[in-house]
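Researcher: Next entry in the queue.
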Amino acid sequence: MREYLLEVALRKADILRERLSENRLSELREIVEAAWRPYEPRPVEPESYAGVDGGNNSIEFKGMTLYALVGYAVARRETGAEEYYVGDIDLLYPPSPSDERIRILRETAEARAALMAGDVEALLIDGSIRSLIIHPRPLAHVADMSSALQQAEALLGKDVFTRLFDGIMEGVEDKRGYDPFVSKKLVFEKNLTSSSYEHVVSLLYYIEKLLTIRLLIESRLRMGEWPRILYVAKTSRSQIYFSDVRRELGIPLPSDIVLFSMFTQEPGYAAPMYPLEFSDLKKMPRHGDLERLLRSFYDTLGYLVTYIRLEHGGPLLRLEIPLPVTGGMGESYVRWAMDRLAALSVNGYPYPLIEADKAAKITRKDIALIAEILGLLPRSTGREVLMEWL
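Model: Structure for this entry, 390 residues:
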């Protein structure tokens, strides 16, 4: 197999190199540079700040999945540093080889950990609010969402989402974070553990995530006119900045982050954009309690996206900031964020997120040790015939 793939690589090497060559993309240089705003950050260390990240891992046994996940926040104030954990270890029901539901639960745990960090001046979260808010893949279509909503109410009652929200509110007061998911409790109460209920379970997990993010943003808005939540990502596949150019040139273009990395070097930021990608969420039916619990909140929420570089030749980062839709243009928010991030960065990347990443990582060795402690090893994974066990 390796020899075959190497042969394919050699045959396509020139094509792939050409697609990413600066010569081929040189006519974009002026367009990219015109979208870039040079700005030398003035480092201002916030009085308090927190970094948030999460981790998960799993083992596929024969017919079942064991997973472990954690949301983690480290907050630093004048009084010192505090750590917050929200975690879970369980079997995945309904059984599925997909880790989509595990990812949703981990993202909910991250939002819970961020809530626990409290009223810090700057809240740094690893990732993208866009990817948090849009539909999970099991519910990518409006028809699937409507069907799941109807079945959830038929199985759990018309007030299921109110009870879900009330349970989340109660859970926020629990600082241990050992059993954090109200949606899972509902699943097990009604024994919705067969594969025929997977879309209902995915919906409940998704709604709990959206409600938890709502509580997080609301708690931050009580501190001022904008929530000062900075979503920072090291990578991005987004192509919203130069989509018109791509159509005009008729050639495939790499993602925005690649183009800005290729044609800019100095500190600064891309002109902020205000995508309409929350429109996926806004397709959620105006339906019963969800109108009050979700739609009425998210209809007032927007976000800006930009790419930033904190030092000359440093890494390019994607920055997203949630804002009220009436918040106006946000270049002042971007500069505020860059000034704080510059004071908290090592080699152009915020060290609170480096700390959070290391603390939240769940390795293969970790999940194997958990399985051993739980008495699940040795147990068939179905890969023994290939002389593999984990």
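Model: DSSP finds 16 helices and eleven strands in the chain.
Researcher: Noted, moving on.
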